[in-house]
Automatic annotation (TrEMBL):
Keywords: Methyltransferase, Transferase. Transmembrane segments: none annotated. PANTHER family: PROTEIN ARGININE METHYLTRANSFERASE NDUFAF7, MITOCHONDRIAL. InterPro entries: NDUFAF7, NDUFAF7_sf, SAM-dependent_MTases_sf. It comes from Bradyrhizobium ottawaense. This is NADH dehydrogenase [ubiquinone] 1 alpha subcomplex assembly factor 7.
Amino acid sequence: MTEQPLLNEIKALIKSSGPMPVWRYMELCLIHPRHGYYVSRDPLGREGDFTTSPEVSQMFGELLGLWTASVWKQMGSPQFLRLIELGPGRGTMMADALRALRVLPPLYQALHIHMVEVNPVLRERQNATLSGVRNIAWHDSIDDVPEGPSIILANEYFDVLPVHQMVRHEYGWHERVIEIDPNGKLQFGAAPEPTPRFDVLLPPLVRAAPVGAVFEWRPDGEIMKLATRVRDQDGAALIIDYGHLRSDAGDTFQAIARHTFADPLKAPGQADVTAHVDFQALARAAEDVGARVHGPVTQGDFLKRIGIDTRAAALMQKATPEVATDISIALKRLTDTGRSGMGSMFKVLGISEPRLTGIAGLSDLEQAGEAS
């Protein structure tokens, strides 16, 4: 049987301190200093556990590069711009974005690249992918990125931030926990006492949830950090992730290993554990600190609005029939709304300083124009 040091450590913690909240379990699974999933491996691609949009096609990163250029112009084309990526994977998206931005020398010269990454294995991959890039630095947290006008890209970043789960019982909402069953295996449970006055701040949809319903929430700290930064220092952030447009009840805590769903309690630290992103909660938190919110819209809509069909057609024109087929398949994967597509499952949210009233792919005026 495979060694499971993190499972043994979690069981020891539960035995000594009592049942563990889901958020703490998720945090240990992902960023435990020695055995955490995100500090010990490259999880991406065919050989890994999942594939992200930048790995599907170069078009994704290229279009985000052009989106960055559009926002930079709206900011008044500052002579200095920090381009920050949170959780940059193998550096694929940044490399594709920068290739697209080379056609705009004034912006390309203005760029200072900041990669926020805790995984040493992925840092090495990013370093290799971006070996020719000047003015590039790595950080453990966005707190370490110096001040200045910024555009922040966060693709599949928020889904791995630890999530609290609450379970509705007859007399209130109880924190969901991980405990040990009589056979010595991990199982879900609930704190014996309800969390006082938890329902007061709940969205109406959730307040009406039946007994047994699960509600997930993340602390607002990370989104408020981004929103405050762009509010005070000029700029915008683009958040792309899978999740829901409205705050609602539902258990989305899941594990993915080798591109298939797995039991999140079975092999802690050896599978990617995530939970869907609540985009309404992100938008509300950003607005609460005085930033402007754009969207959210689905990834399919966003990519179509910023020109993915035109880009695909241009690439296919120059390609061999085999490569053209691959481009067509990638386009469908990124924009389709069916089960195999990422187009409707993934959402896109923009956050900016208040003077930026419209942002490419996300502005209300554009949406109204399309609807008419």
